[in-house]
Structure formats: C-alpha cells, structure tokens
Amino acid sequence: MQNIIERLNQWIIKVPEEFNQMSEADVSKRPLPNKWSKKEILGHLCDSAINNLERFIKIQYEKLPFVLSPYNQDQWVELQNYQDTPIEEIIDLWTSLNKQIVKVIEKVPCEKLAYQCDLGNQQIKNLEWLIQDYLEHMEHHLKGQIFK
Description:
Blueprint: H1 2-19, H2 24-28, H3 38-58, E1 66-67, H4 73-80, H5 87-106, E2 116-120, E3 123-126, H6 127-146
Parallel strand pairs: 1-2
Antiparallel strand pairs: 2-3
Helix pairs in contact: 1-5, 1-6, 3-4, 3-5, 3-6
C-alpha cells in the first residue's frame, strides 16, 4: 500500500501544477463532439473518487463479499456539468477527494486488504486489488488523455 499512497500523493501535487499551466480554453476543448474535454475527464476522475471512497470504506464493515454498485459514468459527468464548471473548482474537488482516499487507505488494517468484493459477472476481487485498480484507472486517464 505504501507505493500506492506515494503515487497518489505525487499526483495530488502534480495534477494542480499541470492544470494551472493550461488555459480554460485548452481544458474545455473537446477533441470530438462525443468525447470528454480535459476538465470533463478530471471530473470523471472526481466521480471515480467519490464512488471508490465509499467502496473503500464500506468493504471494511459490510457483509462480504461486498457487492459493488456500478454507476453510469457518462450520466455522472453530464449531470455534474463539469464542462461548464471552472477548472479550479474541479481541481479542488479532485484534490480533496484524493487526500481523503489517502487517509482512508493509510488506516486500512492489513487483514482487511484481503476482504472480497463482487464486481459482477462472477468476478471476485479483494480490497487491495480495488485500491490498485483505482490508481491504475486514474493514471490511465492522466497519462493517456490529459498530460500526454
């Protein structure tokens, strides 16, 4: 977990620095009409943080295997209206959420990392995998779409 915590903390510093070098026009531009802008992608990462923060907490005390509820990513981005939200607000939300995720992860007892969750489609994973997947998903978007 220490490596994951360190990587998250690095992103918590890097993401605001990188976005602060971009104009509002740059972060608002959609590459195609049906594709998200950079700030919508960061908004999507906020939504991912919201949903995963709840999962990281609940899996530690709910009946196991904890059943993950899916969420409609496109609807979340649209209904949160990230495209018309100032980038500073999205950065602040993303940063706060990820700081809280780090706090939660730091306090997970080792034995709870093995707690299982049901992803659906007969896929059972553990909390440690879920946390790692959260970071990998974030890095996929940050490295591959925002800061490429």
